[in-house]
Structures are given as structure tokens and as C-alpha cells.
Specification:
The chain is of the alpha/beta class. Helix content is about 35%, strand content about 25%.
């Protein structure tokens, strides 16, 4: 489980996260919705430890993680250990891997070389890495067909699949996905959503950051709405899809496809944050 408590992150004088708290249970998909500037990418950077590369700093709060089958120093926080002071490489070794916004693939390298790069930090044996690669190529068969092709020549959807596949090469127990639908055609977005479900079905938890609420709420069990660095609404994804706030701001005419019912005002399962 991942547990974020009262997290405050700054870039210089700018407070990007203002006391954010959330959890990602084992074997779950949790979505974080929000517009540009809400703090979604900052949240993932803080979890992965890459916020320092962007001159960010954690001023308050804690980030703790524990996954079954992982060796980790445990404290008294329910079997979780703090990771907010770790560098990115050590965070990966704990089983947390980020697939960043905008793909960030190595365009001059081939597809195969990108995948090998994703597993470089793994301490797994050569045979285990080969098995992981086979699973990734089964999940993304187009990558097997494009193995010797330069990554920069892939389509946008193929590049996103490569970015996700590269992250999976590290065999994460928790995958951080930052805007995987960004810039993709609707049919490709739907395909990405199905792949997220398949990844979760293989035993990997997913923290999915998205502006595309329609896709995110379909695949997530639980969701949070982030506004200007604060969590404004939390609850089961199906319940959030019915709220006026989420329907008006993020779903529009696509809301009926998710909820199948008329909008509701309040639900006993939702938490509204104020202050």
C-alpha cells in the first residue's frame, strides 16, 4: 500500500501541493483527476523522488509504502516504510516506477533498446528479465513488431505503449502513470484504458493521473479530484462519476456512459475536503 499524508511540496515560493493525503491499496487502480496546474504531476514526482530534479522540495508530510513480497525496512506505520527521502533509483528498487507525462522515450534508440533500458535498475536474473520482457511484449504486441525500429518513428499511441512497457520492465508493484491519454485519439485512449486494467490484473497497483476523467473513472476503483494543490473530492470512482462537480468539469456528455444514471448531489461514500 502507498500512503501519502498531509503532503506539502514547493517549487521556490510556489506551493504546488497543500496538504494532500491519499492511499493506493495493494492490487488497486486509483485515479487522480484535475486540470493543468492542479498539482497532479507534482504528486507523482514526489512519490517517485524525481521532484528534486525539478527543484521541488517536500516541506511537510510523509510518503510511505509497503508491498507484499518486497524486502523493505519496516516501521510501526502499519508495516509501511517511509520513502519520501529516497532518491529515484532507490524508489524503483522498492517497486515504484513512474511513466512520465509526454512519454519521454529515448527517440534515437530502438524499441528493444528502450525496453532494455527500463530493466537496467532491476536486480533480477537474466532469465527473469527475459520473462518480464515476454510479458511486456504480450501486453503490447505492436512493440514486438517494431523491435528494431527507432522509437522516434513510432506513432503517438505506440510511443505511449513503449513508455508504459519500459516502466513495466522494472517489474513494479506500483505503477505511476502520468497522463497516458495525452494527445491520443479516442480509440487509442480506450485501448490504453484496457491495458491499465490488464496491468492491474497481473498484480500491479496503478496510480493513474489524468485529465481524461471518462477513461480514468472507467478503470479506477477509487478516485480523487485535485484542485490547485488540494484534494477537493474523494470516493469510489463510480460515485464520483455521478457528482455534479465531476460531470460538469470533466465528463460533459460522456457521463452517462460511465454512471448510467442521473447526476446526484451527495453520496455517503464521498468525502468533500474544505479549508
Amino acid at each position: 500500500m502507498l500512503k501519502v499524508e498531509n503532503l506539502v511540496v514547493r517549487y521556490g515560493a510556489v506551493e504546488a501541493l497543500k496538504g494532500v493525503s491519499l492511499e493506493v491499496p495493494d492490487n488497486s487502480v486509483v485515479a487522480v483527476l484535475g486540470s493543468n496546474g492542479a498539482g497532479k504531476s507534482t504528486l507523482l514526482r514526489a512519490i517517485s523522488g524525481t521532484h528534486r530534479l525539478h527543484r521541488g522540495r517536500i516541506e511537510e508530510g510523509t510518503i510511505s509504502y509497503g508491498a507484499a513480497g518486497r524486502e523493505a525496512s519496516q516501521d510501526r506505520n502499519g508495516g509501511l516504510s517511509r520513502i519520501d527521502k529516497l532518491d529515484p533509483a532507490k524508489t524503483v528498487s522498492r517497486g515504484i516506477v513512474q511513466s512520465p507525462e509526454g512519454r519521454r522515450i529515448f527517440g534515437r534508440l530502438t524499441v528493444d533498446e528502450n525496453l532494455r533500458a527500463g530493466g537496467m535498475n532491476s536486480s533480477a536474473s537474466k532469465s527473469t528479465r527475459a520473462e518480464t520482457r515476454d510479458r511486456v511484449l504480450t501486453l503490447f504486441p505492436i512493440l514486438a513488431q517494431r523491435g528494431s525500429q527507432r522509437a522516434s518513428l513510432l506513432s503517438g499511441g505506440e510511443q505511449q505503449m513503449l513508455a508504459m512497457g519500459r516502466a513495466l520492465m522494472a517489474s513494479p508493484s506500483l505503477l505511476l502513470l502520468d497522463e497516458p491519454s495525452l494527445g491520443l485519439a479516442p480509440q487509442i485512449v480506450e485501448q490504453i484504458g484496457e491495458i491499465v486494467l490488464e496491468i492491474n490484473g497481473m498484480g500491479t497497483s496503478v496510480l493513474l493521473v489524468e485529465q481524461n476523467a471518462s477513461m480514468a473513472l472507467r478503470v479506477a476503483q477509487y478516485a480523487h479530484v485535485l484542485e490547485v494543490g488540494k484534494v477537493s473530492l474523494s470516493g469510489p470512482a463510480a460515485e464520483l462519476a455521478k457528482t455534479d462537480q465531476v460531470r460538469d468539469l470533466y465528463l460533459g456528455h460522456g457521463a452517462e456512459e460511465i454512471s448510467g444514471t442521473a447526476a446526484v448531489g451527495r453520496s455517503q461514500h464521498l468525502t468533500r475536503w474544505t479549508g
